[in-house]
Write a structure and sequence with these properties.
- The structure is a single chain.
- The protein contains twelve helices and 14 strands.
- With about 450 residues, the chain is an alpha+beta fold.
- The protein has three domains: about 20-145, Orthogonal Bundle (Butyryl-Coa Dehydrogenase, subunit A, domain 1), CATH 1.10.540; about 145-280, Butyryl-CoA Dehydrogenase, subunit A, domain 2 (Beta Barrel); about 290-430, Butyryl-CoA Dehydrogenase, subunit A, domain 3, CATH 1.20.140.10.
- The strands form four sheets. Strands 1, 2, 3, 4, 5, 6, 9 and 10 form an eight-stranded mixed β-sheet that branches.
- A hairpin with a 4-residue loop joins strand 2 (about 165-170) and strand 3.
- Helix 6 runs antiparallel to helix 7, helix 9 (about 295-320) packs antiparallel against helix 10 (about 340-370) and helix 10 (about 340-370) runs antiparallel to helix 11 (about 380-410).
- The longest helix has about 30 residues, at about 340-370.
- The structure holds flavin-adenine dinucleotide.
- Flavin-adenine dinucleotide binds near residues 150, 242 and 437.
Length: about 450
């Protein structure tokens, strides 16, 4: 960033006495090792921050895909998957890795989230061994790219009211997937416009004329790079940000998938066409299914805290170097950070960022305990879901507010793309909406 001068003691800047390694160790916590791996990968791929502004839409999407696959090869994106499939077997570490990725390009972050968190997470949490065997090894390496196709044009927050239908045909032992109208087309789906070969599609299951509610199915959407038979794919086009992610729309025109494509951890359909579930209450079944996907919400919440840290780092450094106005004629101009007003703008945001960092530590730890079987109490799972929703809303709103304040605190320099606020603002804005709209949460 262009500044008047670098901070030196001679210029009146006093280096605060902070034990930086101790503070870093405190903030990294138990996941220092994986965070360090992600930070070193971010350094290797730092050029993406500049390329993002220069590449065409297609080239940016390809570059982001390449980076995601290269990062997968280092093990950083597979921490949440079982070891027997090539993962790291550590849920907490997978969230810590994702959070740390938010120091870099946020399209890379979100593509990682789509591929390993949403798509991979749905296969892992809603599927059973046959799905794990079929998909996990290749999705963990990024060889098989996939989508999490829940939202429709007509319904995003109220996913219980989705319109896509999966009707069981007992004669052929297949499900027939249909998009009944434009309102029911899948929309905003990450990896759909270019790279996804399969999608976990959420649809209303119909068995023998009875609707059994929303269930998830694995559906091939591309073969040899072209839409699979019966699948129509549209590109959502340019977005406010995150343009390195290929979001798109999916329509299904009577697409036939085998009975085994139902992700059947919580419910199944027998070959003869009998619906079976260990959870009798349809409402409870639906929320149990959704509850297993809470890690996405925890991940976005943690990423938001770190996006705020990037903004605050830039703005605080600027404020310790930039001088405007002399206190008295003949005196040196004063550092921005010496102004009470500037302190009141930045310091409470820094304090709140620390507070939210530690709040995120709590929710990540709870998630790890519940999803690793350390905590088995059903009440603890419900408390985790409530805490994840609240923390996500607080951290993502905090990021939006902080990034704007930091941009203004850097004056005109804050407006230059090179200083990162343009990307930070446009890429993180949607964090308040996806993984659950904050007001709805
Ligand atoms: C870049 C991007 C990537 C995405 N990726 C995916 C993906 O990969 N897979 C996927 O399935 N989805 C994805 N989504 C969809 C995203 O999850 C939804 O947009 C989100 O859940 C909000 O749904 P909606 O857009 O229908 O908003 P709506 O639900 O229509 O909300 C609009 C407004 O109405 C308010 N509102 C809604 N209901 C109520 C209520 N009951 N009371 C008061 N206020 C209410 C909300 O607070 C909000 O302000 C993505 C979206 C974007 C933009």
């Amino acid at each position: 960033m262009v500044t008047d001068e670098a901070p030196t003691e001679a210029s009146g800047y006093v280096q605060p006495e902070i034990d930086v390694p101790a503070l870093a160790a405190l903030l990294d916590g138990e996941y220092a090792e994986i965070r360090e791996l992600v930070r070193s990968n971010l350094k290797t791929y730092a050029s993406i921050l500049e390329e993002a502004d220069e590449l065409s839409l297609d080239a940016y999407r390809e570059r982001v895909r390449e980076l995601v696959v290269e990062m997968a090869a280092t093990g950083q994106t597979g921490m949440g998957f079982p070891r027997e499939y090539g993962g790291g077997g550590d849920v907490g570490a997978s969230i810590a890795a994702f959070e740390t990725l938010a120091f870099g390009d946020l399209s890379v972050l979100v593509k990682v989230g789509v591929q390993f968190g949403l798509f991979g997470g749905a296969i892992l949490q809603l599927g059973t061994e046959r799905h794990h065997d079929a998909y996990l090894p290749d999705l963990i390496t990024g060889k098989l790219m996939g989508c999490f196709a829940m939202t429709e044009t007509g319904h995003g927050s109220n996913v219980q009211a989705l319109g896509t239908v999966a009707r069981y045909d007992a004669r052929s032992q297949e499900f027939v997937l249909t998009t009944p109208g434009e309102e029911a087309r899948k929309d905003y789906i990450g990896n759909a416009a270019r790279h996804g070969e399969v999608a976990v599609v959420f649809a209303q299951l119909e068995v023998d004329g009875t609707s059994e509610g929303v269930h998830a199915f694995v559906v091939p959407i591309r073969a040899g790079g072209e839409p699979a038979p019966g699948v129509r794919i549209e590109d959502d086009g340019r977005k406010m940000g995150l343009n390195g992610v290929d979001n798109g729309r999916l329509h299904f025109d009577g697409v036939r998938i085998p009975r085994e494509a139902l992700l059947n951890r919580f419910a199944d359909v027998t070959p003869e066409g009998v619906y079976e579930s260990p959870i009798d209450n349809p409402n409870r079944r639906f929320f149990t299914m959704l509850g297993t996907l809470v890690q996405g919400r925890v991940s976005v919440g943690g990423a938001a805290v770190n996006a705020a840290k990037v903004a605050l780092t830039v703005a605080t450094r600027y404020a310790t170097r930039r001088r405007q106005f002399e206190p008295a004629p003949g005196e040196r101009e004063q550092l921005l950070l010496d102004y009470g007003l500037h302190q009141r703008r930045l310091l409470p945001l820094i304090a709140r960022t620390y507070a939210l960092h530690f709040a995120q530590d709590v929710v990540r730890t709870r998630l790890h305990e519940v999803f690793s079987g350390i905590e088995t109490d059903a009440q603890a799972r419900r408390e985790l879901e409530a805490r994840a929703a609240g923390t996500k809303a607080l951290t993502t709103w905090h990021a939006t507010r902080t990034i704007q304040e930091c941009r203004e605190a850097c004056g005109g320099a804050g407006y230059l793309s090179v200083n990162r606020f343009a990307a930070l603002k446009s890429d993180s804005d949607i964090f308040t909406t996806f993984e659950g709209d904050n007001h709805v949460l």
